[in-house]
Design goal:
Layout lengths: L8 E4 L11 E4 L10 H8 L8 E4 L15 H13 L7 E6 L1 H12 L4 E7 L10 H12 L9 H12 L6 H8 L2 E3 L11 E3 L3 H6 L1 H5 L14 E4 L8
Parallel strand pairs: 2-3, 2-4, 4-5, 5-8
Antiparallel strand pairs: 1-3, 6-7
Helix pairs in contact: 2-3
Family: Belongs to the AB hydrolase superfamily.
Pfam families: Abhydrolase_6
InterPro entries: AB_hydrolase_1, AB_hydrolase_fold
């Protein structure tokens, strides 16, 4: 069995009765991070009558979580299980997953239903995702970026990267989302000596992109019968 990696997470703790309810764990999509859910998490942790503890998580190879050479949904669900049964909050928890995070949430619920009090899946289904073709273009554009001339502040580095992405990714909203992954490298990162780089483990994502578009076949007899909500965008090609 694969070993789980250490996931970075933030906790917005509820008080009073909310602290006794199952916590809500947010799992982001490809190229995202726990910051995607921060404002939602903080707002709902302290809702008067329905507040509950909120946990926002960075997936492996994303955000501040550990990098690993592999990232199948089975491995990512092991990461979530380790978080749920460790210090991230007592199970069961409500898992809210968007896109890749939705598949991680479903894989976790199918393998360990006792850990999942409820499931909210945003814009994805437990099948091969066919609408993901643009992601291959995004990855290709990110692979071609040169950080060699990136100096000064992070925002200056992002501007340089933006100018390189723009010819291949005309949608500025998508570029701004991808640019959240530009980060200052630590001295120990080595590499080409550039001061800035991608925060995501792009090599691992490229290697596993087909696996991330797909969904693992559940074990014989595996099922999840807890409360489940699927939400899809009206114009979304992903569900």
């Amino acid at each position: 069995e694969s070993r789980p990696v250490q996931l970075a997470y933030d906790v917005a703790a509820a008080s009073g009765e909310g602290a006794t309810r199952p916590p809500v764990v947010f799992l982001h999509g490809l190229f995202g991070s726990r910051a995607n859910f921060t404002s939602l998490s903080n707002a709902h942790a302290h809702t008067h009558e329905r507040g509950r503890t909120m946990v926002t998580v960075d997936a492996r190879n994303h955000g501040d979580s550990a990098h690993a050479p592999t990232m199948s949904y089975t491995e990512q669900s092991l990461d979530v299980r380790a978080l749920l049964t460790g210090e991230g909050g007592p199970p069961p928890a409500v898992l809210v997953g968007h896109s890749m995070g939705g598949k991680v949430a479903m894989a976790t619920a199918l393998q360990w239903p006792e850990l999942v009090a409820g499931l909210v899946v945003l814009d994805v289904a437990p099948v091969l995702t066919r609408g993901f073709t643009p992601f291959r273009d995004f990855i290709g554009a990110m692979e071609r970026v040169s950080f060699a001339g990136a100096q000064g502040t992070r925002s200056q580095a992002r501007a340089l990267v933006d100018s390189q992405l723009a010819p291949r990714i005309p949608d500025s909203t998508i570029r701004q989302f991808l640019l959240t992954n530009v980060t200052e490298r630590r001295a120990a990162d080595g590499g080409d000596g550039a001061r800035f780089g991608w925060r995501v483990n792009l090599e691992a994502i490229v290697r596993h992109i087909d696996c991330l578009f797909d969904f693992p076949r559940p074990a014989e007899g595996a099922s999840y019968s807890g409360p489940t909500l699927f939400i899809g965008g009206g114009d979304s090609p992903y569900i």
